[in-house]
Amino acid sequence: MHAFTYTRAADVGGALQAGAAQGSAYLGGGTNLLDLIKGDVAQPLRLVDINRLPLAQIRELPGGGLSIGALARNSDTANHALVRQRYPVLSEALLSGASPQLRNMATIGGNLMQRTRCPYFTDVGFAMCNKRNPGSGCGALQGRNRMHAVLGGSEQCVAVNPSDMNVALAALDATVLLRGPQGERRVALAEFHRVPGNSPELDTNLLPGELITAVELPPAWPNARSRYIKVRDRASYAFALASAAVLLDLDGQTIRAARVALGGVATKPWRATATERALPGRRLDEGSLRAAAALAVREAHPLRENAFKVELAQRAIVRALREAGGVA
Amino acid sequence: MNHPLEPGLKSLAEAGLGSIALTVNGRPALLNCAPPTRLAHALRDELGLTGTKIGCDAGDCGACTVLLDGKQVCSCITAVAQCAGREVTTIEGLAQDGKLNRLQQAFLKYGAAQCGICTPGMLMAASDLLAGNAAPTQAEVEDALGGVLCRCTGYQKIVESVLAVAHDDLTLEPPTAGRAVGSRLARLDGVSKLTGAEKYGADEYPAGALWLRVVRSPHARAGFTLGDLDAFRRKYPQIEGFITAADVPENSFCVFPVPKDQPVLADGHVRFRGEAVLGLLGERDAIIAIPEAEMPITWQPRHALTEPEEALTATGDLIHDFAPENVLCRGRVVKGDVQAAFPMAAHVVEENFRTSYVEHAYIEPEAGYAEVVSQGGQERLRLFVCTQTPYMDKEEVARVLKLPHDRVRVVPSAIGGGFGGKLDISVQPLLAVAAWKLKRPVRIVYTRPESMASTPKRHPSRIRVRLGCDKEGKLTAMDFAGDFNTGAYASWGSTVANRVPIHASGPYALPNVRALTRAVYTNNAIAGAFRGFGVPQACIATETLMDELAEKCGIDALEFRYRNAIRAGDATACGQVLQASAGLDQCLDALRPAWAGAKEASAAFNGQAIRSGSRKRRGAGLACMWYGIGNTVIANPSTMTIGLRASGRVVLYNGAQEIGQGTYTIMPQIAADALGVPVSLIDQVHSDTDLTEDAGKSSASRQTFVSGNAAKFAAEDLRRQLLQLAGTAADATLRLEGTALIAGTSRIDLQGLTPINERGDLALGSGYFNPPTVPLDADGQGVPYATFAFAAQLAEVEVDLDYGTVKVLHIHAAHDVGRAVNPTQVEGQIHGGIAQGLGLALMEEYISGKTDNLHDYLIPTVGDMPRITTYLIEDAEPLGPYGAKGVGEPALVPTAPAIYSAIRAATGVRVRLAPATPDRLKAALKAHEAGQRL
What we know:
The structure holds two protein chains of two kinds. By secondary structure, chain A is an alpha+beta fold. Chain A is built from 13 helices and twelve strands. Chain A starts with a strand and ends with a helix. Chain B is α+β, with helices and mostly antiparallel strands. A seven-stranded mixed sheet of chain B has the order 8-10-6-17-14-15-16. In chain B, strands 2-1-5-3-4 form a five-stranded mixed sheet, sandwiched between helices. In chain B, helix 2 packs across helix 5 (156-164) and helix 11 (390-401) crosses helix 12 (427-438). The two termini of chain B are 41 Å apart. Chains A and B meet through strand 1, helix 2, helix 6 and helix 13 of A and strand 4 and helix 22 of B.
């Protein structure tokens, strides 16, 4: 445990000012950050408590989209009437994540920032982890890697992004709103998280001192059907072995458009764009869907213990599409 | 990794903040701790509200659940700064005016609290639900409780209790005189578990107690040297003392007399990752703040032997010098002539099986304190600790300190789950050495990673079995060989190696048996005692082959077992002729209707699934078990005493350590009926090595059988004395009315009698029981146990062929317990055993040196549990108290093989590697579909 200071921000400006100092970390729900600090995995010099900022609002945007404040709690978001009506896939994903206690504290902004649960990352007594200590090596590549990524990994890191919410947001084409010293900017969710490449220590493209203020969802597809499927080792509070968030626009039994995102198998929330491109015009039969799902894992690089995820991800996509389409 | 408090900020002034004001249980509270201090720690340390428990300290277990503005949150990952101006409700806020609320009453009535460590979390999570939904559905209850882990109850009674709040009459009806045994008496220690008053290992300590931080090896095998400790202390002046190997008078311990192979603190050489090498003492936060990297230790890592195969063949590379081939011990039972029998068999099956390390995952990490007290001009060591075995702790601590036994007193705390894990020695000698050296009170609470790294697990096993039968389906021969990875130190490894061969045959009559085992040292986490001592692992292998053989014979799986069931009058593999109470056949009879129904239902489901293209399949499977009650041959006596006081109340001196299994309820039930008074007249002095007699360990499912007898004999002795005192006949009725004793027609005023001891007992009954056994010869022939429990379980599962996931739908559990002294407690043991068996079967795998938390190590949540139907078979054991045997371990043993049997029925896949995680099952399904063997 390293020493750090604590400051409570009264407004966004104050938060940005405090957050600009090197080594600052914003404290929202704290469900991940406090645990990482306790274990010395995160070593901020200053905690900037942003819980008093007015960023918990969920409101409809002109034109039909939805803005979810960064401090909206996971449980409030999951149970919000507009979310349930128009973006049920987000509600499903949030409710399949963590436990009721954590969902009551965890925030949307914090969930975007959630760090990997790779045990080599969280065990500070273990020397090798490029994400925690750049250049030290990766314990998972040759070690126990059943839970690791088959997509988006590098020679440096194969840690999975553990969030369920992110998978739904990826499928929904969400935009992340950021405030920094230079003002506000908007980043597409697909651009927010990074694959590890040669800098696995960076999970996101957030700039130092930047604050997430909201997530915006574009207007829901009219008559969209959706589903979030999560396959895990036990019934509740377990991270995904593989998960799939899908949106479907159907013309009878034929797909007009689809969005497909994967979780539990990739280093960042993973849009299966090749699958999405292949789906329009197909019917919801098992064979067609399987062929499209296979495209999602063409680039997969399984490790010693996680090859099963390659097939599991496809099965989850097919099942999610069929259930969304009401044929399973 | 031991960080209960954030030491970053020492004062609120530093942060420019005042005290943090909040409301706790309806009253204003001011917290003066640093704003990032986590709420659970502030509640416990600042406000003294220790009802809120810290199980994992990481948001994984939910024991610390409190309400924040009415919503359930994990207080261990909520900063107090986040609670400013808000309302916090803890378990202490539930009872109003000293009266349990309806939720608490329901928990008490329906036995929802066993060890009680998850109870605060469960109550708070349920309170959140009930506040907004007075009459929830079962699914809503399960959702609301999904974030609180329970390792004891199997969740069923908890869910029933929450559902009962809306409608049930929750008043309790205590049994009348002579009706205690067999009644559903609510736990006598229940109220304190439901109000948060119960004191577990971390909940109590003397003022000024120093904190002990244990520095542990990051290497599985290494030499090491300690640097200059004086210089280290100059750099970190908050260190008030050290303990090293040099400070330990006798630096070795083990639960057995031989080999005393484990050092309290390693002396220059470590044998597993997590071994203790150095202790630092000081004020808690200050001592914790010293970075791990600063420890003055130089390591010389060596090649670690991590697999038994490697350890067995690592010529000359011994983990312990005294153990050639790295074998701790061998077990052997041989009867008849296996080699001659197999060629004659009509059908023979053979297979290899493997199981993994399993972690006890009790929600309470090891904790306690030690202090040196002056008594009668002598210094004594007093140890407050969570333990399953206070008397062994006392002897072992005295041995380590080289003190006479009577200089050590062990006062057990309440224990938040044990399951065999707290049958071993963990914090006890460390605390003792530190307190004795510094002559100051010393406390410790293991962190979850520390607990998971350093304490024993269930043995991983590799088992090969060959099983044969004749053409009528009568078993003729079994050849069994098992290797058990016992890790770096002996612990209970030899018990596993010895118990398994005795039980290998399963509860079947088998004329020819050869069962050989080895416990093998490796540089892995220590494997020791865990509910069943290796028998669950063996049962997976043998019961799977029972199914195979039944199929080869074309005989129904239940019928096949029924034909082979061992019965009274039959001889076991050890040559022991069972005299009575062998109720397997009755267990199987009880399951017949459910078996027929389950097979029919799954066939119908699968027919429909195939027609509709669904990828779900269902199946039903069976497994049986038997289990010897008490120690294997080794003496395991129990002594109980019971006194009558002038107040007209009876005091039971109950040294049978309560570990959630109910000994503080069951012993009084037995004693009450034996004495002939209502149980409500009995008070207890709970286990304390100064105040109670040695009742032995809470292990081996022995307490009801062994200490139950001792309690019965003690009460009968007291009754005899009282009747004699009254001068009435031995069969006279005996009553206590106020301070009067009424025996037959005579009435004695107790106030007029002189106590026989300083405690105020007017008369003291004493009872002793040691199960009769006969030592085993070189072929394992003899009488290892006085009695056996029997069980058959039926599992119904649904397998998802796409994912390889398994949902257990229903388990029917038929258990021959001899007599159910308290059916609620028996059911609770069965439910909890099934939960652990389900975890063993489907999800639990501890990776040595790696797994250190409860989100990588998964135990079943409420949503994983099936419906459970229990069938209590009471084939009375003549040697048992009122016919009772034991149920603690038997509950777990058949669950995993029953689930595997059902998976096989659903899919055709035979599980040979536990746990059957989705990836493993999926691989096996693919191989099966391709017609391959995996």
